[in-house]
User: Fold Neural cell adhesion molecule L1 from Denticeps clupeoides.
Amino acid sequence: ADGKCFGPPVRASSDLPALMPQPPTITLQSPKDYIIDPRENIVINCEAKGKPHPSFSWTRNGSHFDLDKDPKVTMKPSSGTLVIDISGEKAEAYEGVYQCTARNEHGTAVSNDIVIRQSRSPLWSKERIEPVVVQLGVSLILQCRPPAGLPPPIIFWMDPFFQRLPQNARVSQALNGDLYFSNVQMEDTRSDYICYARFPHTQTIQQKQPITVKVLDNSPAGQRRPSFMTPKGTNSVATVLRGETLELECIADGLPTPDMSWNKEKGDLPSGRFSFHNFQKTLRVTEVTEADSGDYRCTAKNSQGLAHHVITVMVKAAPYWVGAPRNLILAPRESGILTCHVGGNPKPTITWSVNGVPIESDPSRKVEDDTVILSDVQTGSSAVYQCNASNEFGYLLANAFVNVLAEPPRVLTPPNKLYQVIANNPALLDCAFFGSPIPKITWYKDQQTSILNSDPYVLHINGTLEIHAAQPLHSGKYTCVATNYLASKENHVRLEVKEPTRILKQPEYNVVQRNSKAVFECKVKHDPTLTPIMSWLKDNEELPDNERFVIESESLTISHVTEADEGTYTCIMNTTLDQDSASAVLTVVEQPDPPTDLELTDQRERSVQLTWTPGDEHNSPIQKFLVQYEDSLHQEEAWVNMTEVPGTKTTVHLDLSPYVYYSFRVLALNDVGFSDPSLPSKQYRTNPAKPDENPSEVEGFGIKPNNLVISWKELNGLQSNGPGLQYKVSWKQKDVDQEWITETVANTSQFVVSDTPTFSAYEIKVQAENDYGTGPTPEVVVGYSGEDLPSAAPDSVQVEALNDTLAEVRWEPVHLSAVRGRLQGYKVPMERSLHKEDSQPEEAQVLVFGENKTDGRLPGLHPYSLYSLDMRVFNGKGEGPPSARQQFETPEGVPGQPASFRVTEPSLDSLTLVWTPPEEENGRLTLYTLRYQPVNTTSELGPMEEIILSPNETVLTVSNLKYSTRYKFYLSASTVKGSGPTVTEEGVTIMDEGEFVLAGHTETPYTTSLLTPSPHPPLYKGTTPPSLFPPRTPVNSSVGENGAVISWEYWGVNKNVYVEYNAENSKEAWIKKLVNGTQTYLIKGLKPGTSYRVRVVAKDHLDQTIHSTDELVITVPAMPSRQLDIATQGWFIGLMCAIALLILVLLIVCFIKRNKGGKYPVKEKEDAHQDPEIQPMKEDDGTFGEYSDTEDHKPLKGSRTPSNGTVKKDDSDDSLVDYGEGGDGQFNEDGSFIGQYSGKKEKDTAEGNESSEAPSPVNAMNSFV
Assistant:
């Protein structure tokens, strides 16, 4: 809807419809105080309107101004504006007070009094100005006093060259133009203090004669507290008019120069309207109001004291409008009021005129001070009333007409006008009207009869109907009716309420690098009945006409972005009713421009200051500057980084080296990257000088027994400091009274001294020198000439075995003279034979002991072994001759676990065990210990049985076992030192119906080790091992279904040793078991089919780990499934019945045969070879324990039954063959001793092919199987 300024109806305004009568109204006039330029024609404006158009006349100085009598004065057509041609005339002749009058048949309007004055710029009067002579420190005022001009001139002080004289807190110009010195100084002496006055209308400048000031110091003024030079005294008064600018000034003398400050007593300085000028000496307050009156205090303060001056400000006011009288349009017999509401100080006097004539008493009008009351007006009483308000500071004059008319209503708004608004916005339906008397306005919607004058409708006085927040339901046809007593008039308009246009997704802030792509998205929703127009602006202007800018339906894409594309991009969606817009900023970043204007300042012998101007940052702040240099003397075109400078600094102090031709350049770095290098600076050459430093890394060593090589790190070009760089190499034998020997060399980093004694200490120094002198005193370094092989071996070498794995060696050290070099230690090559009789020793291992040792431990030895060793000293050159060979034996130790262990040949009541001796017997085996126990279906263990076996046995059949039962077996070997680790295995007897299931592994049990033990003991330089465990400590394991035996080597004392384990890949904590005092541990409760990580850890008393072996991964075999119970299966029952019937038939046949007394081959065999088991055994037969002939299937305690179940008297365990000391003992393929048991078994097996046992159910079952 079209916006309107709501006010009275049209009838009360000055904008009447065309052709309606109207009294005159002044529309343009010249200012009251009109200063003219005497060089131009005088133009006095006076324009007015009215119906009919008014005529104009003028008065001058209160009298009628007859234009016809002065040909120089003309009036513009249809206007009251005067044009006075002053060519050939003086403008002064037309100075005066002018007033314009505009009249028509309905009234007369008058203008303000216009005072015409000519501008003036008089010359300065000639005067002789005597020089001003003052003493140092006194105050001084140089007066300007320009001639009075119209308007007043602008004052300033300059020298003859039109350069402003310097002003400061001590010297400043006052508001009146005078130049004030709070105290004069010697620099104030000059002869060209000139005051200039510029007259603005004529643009002329007048100058005063120069003033000479001479300052003497023969009687200078002392320091003093401030006193005011202007205004004088402690109080003054200032008057200012309302609305003008207040300027208060305080200038004080004093030494030192006082500081000025201002405050308002009983209040604050007016916020936002005050300011300080002239070095705090002037307080300026703009747009003064009555509230600004009061006391203002200025304070002058220096080190000697302070002074105050209070200026009382009084605010006066020329007349000003509070409410000017307004034009009236009245119908006949109506009443009205004209009000002339003005303010001022002092209160203005108000006078009224009508048509330019003082008002007279009339029954139809009454004057009451600032009000004229009109009543019962008549046709033809139209007039123009003048209100004049004046006081001593000025006046106001206003014209207001009263137009008496009788007119029927008119609706000025076009009919059937369509209004379209956006929902939730105000809708303003116009009903512009005119009529006299004022018509009454009513509104209707659609076919309703009710008047719309309640929420949400608001009817304004000008006839406009407003809907505060229009909604779609407000759409429709509206009717406006204007009525007065003369007639009524109606008008129809339509309202449509549309959905608003909204940007759903606004473009976002974009930071892109130059030459990349920027995309702004702008998604919009709008009313479907409106046609949208999408447009984009850049910085509120149209986009550049460039193909890089691509506008799509909902986006703007800018390709190959440049710096010129930076700015604010605005997406605008326009419809005919509304628009929505959103903006986003595009910032283009790139690497900075290179710095410029490199300048070298503060140039010194060893330093220079480099300054530069940063280049454009390209919207990415510079983080730092990189300063590089080029040395064109030593390495041309090679730029070297010298220093970095923070991005906020543009200067750096550079330390320089002598004898360098420097050029500098600077690079800038921001988030995008480094700029290109700046142009190089001017070359800066430093003078040569003697070296500041000597070569570094000086050392002396020999490469032959009779030489000394002196080496150093050469100085580079920057370090040389000058031409002719050489090195003075000096040496002498240490602790020998001799002079330094010196040689000078160049372009090398070493010098060889020949014919030196072997491995002698030398004092060495290397000093740099060039053509300008030598470097500082060099540091003396001690070096040694070359070494030779030692010439002697250690004496008195003795070896003693401390236990089965540890021995100690002692020796006498070699004299240092025989070492012939730097003693590095002693080497002990050591070889092992498994037994004394072995002819092929193992590969030698070497132990190393420190140079200060005279004894040492030999750890990691094998028990029951023969070792031989010698000892030799070594230095940097190599080893000396060996000592005499020494041999020693280690005592027996505990054996290792059996190398293999398996269960074979299961039967109803027996299991056969087969094993091999330990790989590490560590002595003479004395026996094997076998223990076994049943395991029930819940893995619970039964009672333990134990059998002691001879050391040469490797096979054993355990009888009298329970059928279909799992048994767990434990086997260990022993020497005289004790029992070794145990190996375990499990087996299952078969069911008595003839089927069996083996449980566990029937393969050879396996052992694993983290590391394969080395055949050589580790090398130690000390006498004791460095930790609880030897390097590469083997951790061994033997694994069964639910347990693992862990063994290790351990030497430590007073330490806590733990076996730690957890499931592989588990994140749970390690399970710890304390195992102090042992070197084996059985881990129980392991889950079958699971892999575990195991390690052995030693900890101190604070529970801190001091050593840990590597982790060993062991896998527990999966538990075989329990034997299926087939006793209830049909086919099994049938089979058992058939077998039982067959056995019964066999028994009957045997019974018949026996009764007949016949013989059969089995019986004959039994007669020829009677079973020894039924023979009584004697204690001297060499057997173990007693024999039991009971048939209750109990274990044979203490028995050693061969696999065929027979024992012969010749098979004595005391045979020397068992110990390898005689007889025809046999060895199997792997060299292990078998003895007579194995031979007997093979023999019996061969014989058994021809034999037969007595029939029995068990034998029959075995035969069947």
